[in-house]
Design a protein that fits this description.
By secondary structure, the chain is of the alpha/beta class. The protein contains 17 helices and 28 strands. The chain is globular. The N and C termini lie far apart (76 Å).
């Protein structure tokens, strides 16, 4: 059955969404099997280039190209290889790979036969082992020995802990070695590529992929995503962005991230787009960012791409005469607040209107988007996607929904729809997230305006609560980003014995800038909209710590702020009688924990010093432990 091509229908406001919903969703989706969408994309024009891969971030380097015929053949061979190993629909194929062409063939091949699970290849070996065990992975595929990477070496360091019977295969990296006995390409090449050697009946709610959610510390949570959710997003995201087969898109997000898996992965293939891999590291590679506009010109990129931190860098490094006429007049970024000032600057220098979206792994990517054909209301996360419900509610103490919030009243953002996860692989994480009647509370706060636009006001855990006054960190961040010397900004709360929390900020300056903390402090106080939000301290970092998709790593910054606070306070409390060391670290039970080490200068005063330390720490809502080193 052909797919109705409605992707050029307008998206101006909520009325256009409601107009689509007059047709039942089942009549919009030609198949609830994600593999059918992949096959449809491959069969549109088999000779068209599907992937262009550049190994070094230089647009003038020779590109490795795969046609859609190649992509379908190689992924079919991998599916057949997995079948020959005895894998079935409930088995997991786990991989640790940067963005190479094989990442696409492996993902699509594993989707056809089993359950692909791409994980962050920068995780520590112990976390990798934990994920291999928790998924009961039957096959693990990792980057082989490659200069500049330690993926294979890290895996080998815990090889003895991989469960017996788990096959370990490799993919050669740029300039890396090939291990013939475990080379995925060589093993798959022995399988037929013109047909699948097995039959599979996929149900809409069958598990399709596992994608991990969470930060870069500790083991991430694995989110279950279904064929229903992915099939819906292949339709809904293409409609929201009016995608066409002639689109050319960067694969610049890691594929272990939901945006990489869907928008740069399965959905892009499903619609027959040309996918450009500018470097295995994507936006983490400085060479690519330095050459971004040249890539756009050479490959005729149509979709501007990047997380907010990448786009902030591009605004500070604008085009220098490159031909950007291939770019369509709108693009999206999201899942974090995007400063309106950067959006306006980007539109001024490129002609591209940047639309904010709101999503998460648990939603199978985004569930809202600013309208491409209407007023984007810069700063908002846009309107809901068709057939998806979004509410802002007040919650009861037990996490149940108490009532809907009024227009422009802030509350918890909850969602329901065909792309919502059925839960985590470890069901313990479902509590407090999956709530009654299919709704999900992902911990985000926001408000809905009179036109149905969602305005995010922060994460429940990111809001800075200063003496009962809730401070949205984006107010601080957007103010700092208006300063010409500031490239990146992040605001977090630091512990305070009186107010509970006080706002502090961390910034990274543009190259060769020389702004001082005093100058930035004056700038913020002169320009911030809320006096209570003015940060008590501003720290200039040589490099902002980022998550693997380019967002400021706020958990790390919160720990740093707490560590600085406790170290200063406790040093004063201990005085000359003891030296104090403080390390604030993640803790499974408490979230974070302050590890306090004391070295006595006066052994007879140890009891008195410890008593004073405990009294000082009692003023903070932080877990801690004390250890004497002498």
């Amino acid at each position: 059955m052909p797919v109705p091509e409605i992707y050029d229908s307008p998206m101006r406001d909520l009325r256009d969404v409601e107009a689509l919903e007059r047709v039942p969703l089942k009549d919009r989706i030609f198949s609830w099997n994600a593999n059918d969408w992949v096959r449809r994309g491959c069969d549109r024009d088999p000779d068209k280039i599907a992937l262009s891969y550049i190994a070094d971030g230089d647009p003038d380097s020779a590109a490795v190209r795969l046609s859609y015929r190649d992509l379908k053949q190689r992924s079919t061979q991998i599916a057949n290889l997995l079948h020959s190993y005895g894998l079935g629909p409930g088995d997991v194929v786990l991989f640790l790979l940067p963005t190479l062409p094989q990442l696409y063939t492996l993902t699509l091949g594993a989707l056809a036969r089993a359950i692909p699970c791409g994980i962050n290849w920068m995780l520590k070996p112990l976390h990798v082992i934990e994920l291999i065990r928790s998924t009961k992975a039957k096959v693990v595929v990792a980057l082989g020995p490659t200069p500049g990477y330690e993926i294979w070496e890290n895996l080998q360091s815990v090889r003895g802990e991989i469960p017996a019977g788990t096959r370990v295969l490799m993919v050669p990296g740029p300039g890396g070695a090939t291990l013939p006995d475990s080379d995925l390409d060589a093993l798959a090449a022995r399988q037929p590529g013109d047909r699948l050697t097995f039959a599979r009946d996929v149900k809409p709610d069958d598990l399709a992929v596992l994608v991990h959610s969470g930060g870069t510390t500790g083991s991430p949570k694995l989110v279950k995503l279904t064929h229903r959710g992915i099939s819906y997003k292949c339709w809904a995201n293409a409609w929201a962005m009016a995608h066409r087969p002639d689109d050319v898109i960067f694969s610049d997000y890691p594929m272990f991230h939901i945006a990489g898996m869907i928008s740069r992965g399965i959905m892009a293939v499903a619609h027959g787009m040309h996918i450009v891999i500018p470097t295995p590291l994507g936006a983490r590679d400085k060479r690519f960012i330095e050459n971004y506009w040249r890539f756009v010109e050479k490959f005729r990129i149509t979709i501007l791409s990047g997380v907010p931190t990448t786009l902030a860098t591009l605004v500070k490094n604008p085009p220098r005469g490159e031909d950007l006429s291939s770019l369509r007049p709108f693009a999206t970024t999201g899942s974090t607040a995007f400063p309106a000032e950067i959006a306006r600057n980007l539109e001024q220098i490129t002609g591209v209107r940047m639309l904010l979206s709101y999503g998460s792994t648990e939603f199978t990517q985004n569930i809202t988007q600013a309208p491409r054909d209407g007023d984007p209301k810069y700063g908002s996360a846009g309107i809901r996607l068709p057939y998806t419900q979004v509410r802002v509610v007040k919650l009861k103490p037990d996490g149940a929904i108490e009532r809907n919030c009024a227009v422009d009243e802030s509350g918890a953002v909850v969602a329901k729809g065909p792309s919502i996860t059925p839960g985590y692989l470890d069901s313990r994480y479902d509590q407090g997230v999956l709530i009654k009647d299919g709704w999900i509370n992902n911990g985000d706060l926001g408000r809905l305006d009179t036109d149905g636009f969602l305005w995010l006001t922060g994460r429940a855990k990111d809001v800075i609560i200063r003496g009962g006054h809730n401070i949205d960190p984006t107010v601080i961040e957007e103010t700092l980003l208006k300063h010409p010397d500031v490239l990146l900004a992040a605001a977090v709360g630091r512990p305070d014995a009186y107010a509970g929390e006080l706002p502090v900020a961390y910034v990274q300056l543009v190259a060769d800038a020389n702004a001082t903390t005093e100058e930035l402090d004056r700038f913020v106080r002169d320009n911030i909209s809320e006096r209570a939000a003015a940060p008590k301290d501003i720290t200039i970092l040589p490099r902002m710590p980022l998550t693997d998709v380019g967002k400021p790593a706020k958990p790390q910054l919160r720990r740093d702020a707490a560590q600085r606070t406790f170290a200063g306070v406790l040093a004063e409390v201990a005085g000359a009688q003891a030296q104090v060391g403080v390390v604030v670290q993640p803790d499974d039970a408490a979230g974070t924990k302050a590890m306090i080490t004391l070295t006595a200068a006066d052994a007879n005063a140890k009891a008195d010093v410890e008593q004073r330390i405990r009294k000082a720490m009692s003023a903070y809502a932080s877990a801690y432990a004390i250890e004497w080193t002498a």
